Amino acid sequence: MAVTEPAPPAQPVAHEGILRRQSLRESAARTYARSLPIVPVRARGLTIEGADGRRYLDCLSGAGTLALGHNHPVVLEAIKKVLASGAPLHVLDLATPVKDAFTTELFATLPRPLADDARIQFCGPAGTDAVEAALKLVRTATGRTGLLAFTGAYHGMTAGALDASGGAVDVRVTRLPYPQNYRCPFGVGGERGAELAARWTGNLLDDPKGGVPTPAGMILEPVQGEGGVIPAPDGWLRRMRELTASRSIPLIADEVQTGVGRTGAFWAVEHSGIVPDVMVLSKAIGGSLPLAVIVYRSDLDVWQPGAHAGTFRGNQLAMAAGAATLSFVRENRLAERAAILGTRMLGQLQGLAATHRSIGDVRGRGLMIGVELVNPDVDDPQADVPPADPVLAAAVQRECLRRGLIVELGGRHSGVVRLLPPLTLTDEQAQAVLDRFADSLEAAVCAPPPQRHRAVSVIPDDTTRKSP
Fold first, then answer.
1. How far apart are CA 4 and CA 432, in angstroms?
2. CA-to-CA distance for 182 and 295, rounded, in angstroms?
3. Burial letters for 40-75: b for 16+ Cβ neighbours within 10 Å, e otherwise?
4. Where are the beta strands (DSSP E) in 127-277?
5. How far apart are CA 281 and CA 266, in angstroms?
6. 325 and which of 41, 252, 287, 290 could share a cystine (Cβ 3.0–4.6 Å)?
7. CA 84 vs CA 81, 99, 288, 327, 408: distances in Å
8. Where are the alpha helices (DSSP H) in 10-156?
């Protein structure tokens, strides 16, 4: 699919009124709307068209939800088929042909040792509810309450999920070091840093005076997304699996954002070859519609009826769209495509880093890519690397939007520009994304510092009128 030619701008009055009313009516908790002041009215694949007539390349993809991009034909056809059939759209947890087809397709994609002996729990429609279900499950099955989680983690916004996330305070969760190369907690990085992180975990669990009784479970992300796009080393993941298995601690893999081909494997745990006891799945499994489940070993299935429920756990349209998405990704080998294209994009971004001191690190896996921006002029003899530069990152995001490119920020200090394009991304589109990002970085770096703080003004320019 070629990059769509941007449409000429329309009169801005209507969309400005919508944005104004949103700011007056919606809560102060809104997030994306603040940094992306656009009003989407049409979308297809990678492209979003705003109410002002401008078109954007969407590398946010619903925070990783849109594996096939916006309004993919197979997803629309699956939804239309359910609507035309007269099937009920709301069924609580009753069995239906649509649910059966979704479950069958999902199980066909799971790591075989898990799929052969798995149970599935349909949760409320958000990934955070699936995290809550996973935590409740392992606590019920083990009779224990404590949890092991990792620095930099993000598991959702409900109470239990926040407890296990990196910004939690006063909770019953033991925080463990998550290995990373660029900002290694032990100052060494690489395999040695991952080895030290694993050793810390093992020693803590075995220390009778460590203050950490055997927990109910360990929860981790194979790639930390909100934490700054940090892939877990495969050897470290295998070590976590060994440590938990030998101590009868259920291992929970949060694949809400990493699943369905995003990282270059259908499920990110497959890179390391581990099989978790519980997998938390949401986002892309619903084919753009709300859906969340946990899949787990059958021996953990000790819940009583109604132990975890939710009125909207029977979303038939989402199951149909999800089954179509899972099937399309599997049959068209889009995970393999994501691995190849992601490696190519990472290589080009690393080449860009060689000419820009403000790029501290480029990392990722598949089409889950992060570019950490730093302030190289800050001289801190106590630091191994320059500090993150969230002001520059925000300026780059604004410059991207001016050029018709939607990106998101993440990381500890919101200094990481994140790229989450759909798996259907073409070579031409990938190059357009990289070109617009490079132009935006150049503009942001060259702007006088006060201008980096200016609010975005979404006005058309020559860049967005041309086919890349």
1. 11
2. 33
3. eeebebbbbbbbbbbbbbbbbbbbbbbbbbbebebb
4. 147-150, 173-176, 217-220, 223-224, 230-231, 251-254
5. 12
6. 287
7. 5, 17, 19, 21, 37
8. 13-25, 32-35, 61-64, 73-85, 97-109, 112-115, 127-142
pTM value is 0.91
Distance, C-alpha 320 to centroid of its chain: 22
Q: Are the C-beta atoms of 214 and 144 separated by less than 8 Å? A: yes
Q: Which two tokens stand for residue 119?
A: 């149970």
Q: Over the chain (468 residues), what is each successive 10-residue block's mean pLDDT?
A: 47 78 91 91 96 95 96 98 95 95 98 96 92 95 95 82 70 88 93 96 92 94 96 97 97 98 98 98 96 97 92 92 98 98 98 96 98 91 89 97 97 96 98 98 87 46 35
Q: What is the DSSP letter of 196?
A: H
Amino acid in position 21: R
Distance between CA atoms of 278 and 294, rounded to whole angstroms?
7
User: Which helix (H) or strand (E) element contains residue 341?
Assistant: helix 334-353
Length of the chain, please? Answer: 468
Distance of alpha carbon 337 from alpha carbon 360, whole angstroms: 27
